[in-house]
Each structure stands twice: as C-alpha cells, then as structure tokens.
C-alpha cells in the first residue's frame, strides 16, 4: 500500500478559524490536506521537544500541535485538544 499513511489518532470534531479559511482560500488549498498530515504524524515545522510531546500526546490522548506553511508561505497551525474531542486549524496569531 505504497503512499498510504497510517492514522495515528482521532481528530474529534474539526473546526477552522476565519483567518485560516482565508489563508487556505488564497493559497487554493484544502483543510483536509493539513488534517491528514497532522493525523498521520507529520507534525510539520515544530521543535524537537514539541515533536516528542506530539508523539506522547497522540498515544495517550494529550494535546497535539502541528505547524505548517501554506503554498504562499503563511503559517498554519493544527491543534488537537487533550482528550482528542476537537481539532482546530488556525493561524498562530489566533491562538
């Protein structure tokens, strides 16, 4: 099954802020692209400490934070809350 990634954890209910929606529309990208990367353990551009925290969080139900850039270079965060009931796509300045 080449090209398929394994889902690491559940996302819960997915939401996106107005700012992130505008950035994705401008870059002609879909939220699903970032949600898929996040859920499969591609944390994007995070510090090594955050990557370790994400690994643990994905297993025990803790917070998981991924950081990406749109095709136009804008920062986008994807955060799954502790308990994995909600996942939000947002801009860092909206946190």
Task: Profile the largest sheet.
Answer: 4 strands, mixed
Overall number of strands:
4
**Number of spatially distinct domains:** 1
Name the helicity range: 25-40%
Number of helices: 3
**For the largest beta sheet, what order do the strands appear in spatially?**
1-4-3-2
Distance between the termini: 37 Å
Shape: globular
- Uncertain runs: none
* Secondary-structure element string: EHHHEEE
Compute the CA-based radius of gyration: 13 Å
Strand content: 15-25%
- Mean pLDDT value: 96
Q: How does the helix and strand content classify structurally? A: alpha+beta
Primary descriptors:
single chain; 95 residues; alpha+beta; 22% strand; globular
3D structure, described in words:
The relative contact order is 0.27. The chain has a four-stranded mixed sheet. By secondary structure, it is an alpha+beta fold. The longest helix is centred in the middle third of the chain and has 13 residues. The protein has one domain.
Short description:
With 95 residues, the chain is of the alpha+beta class. The chain has helices spanning 18-27, 31-39, 48-60, and strands at 13-16, 64-69, 75-80, 86-90.
How do the strands and helices of this protein lay out in sequence?
Elements: E1 13-16, H1 18-27, H2 31-39, H3 48-60, E2 64-69, E3 75-80, E4 86-90
Parallel strand pairs: 1-4
Antiparallel strand pairs: 2-3, 3-4
């Amino acid at each position: 099954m080449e090209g398929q990634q394994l889902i690491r954890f559940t996302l819960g209910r997915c939401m996106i802020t107005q700012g992130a929606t505008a950035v994705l529309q401008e870059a002609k990208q879909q939220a699903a692209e970032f949600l898929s990367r996040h859920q499969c353990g591609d944390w994007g551009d995070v510090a090594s400490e955050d990557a370790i925290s994400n690994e643990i969080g994905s297993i025990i139900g803790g917070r998981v934070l991924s950081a990406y850039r749109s095709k136009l270079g804008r920062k986008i965060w994807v955060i799954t809350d502790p308990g994995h009931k909600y996942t939000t796509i947002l801009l860092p300045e909206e946190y």
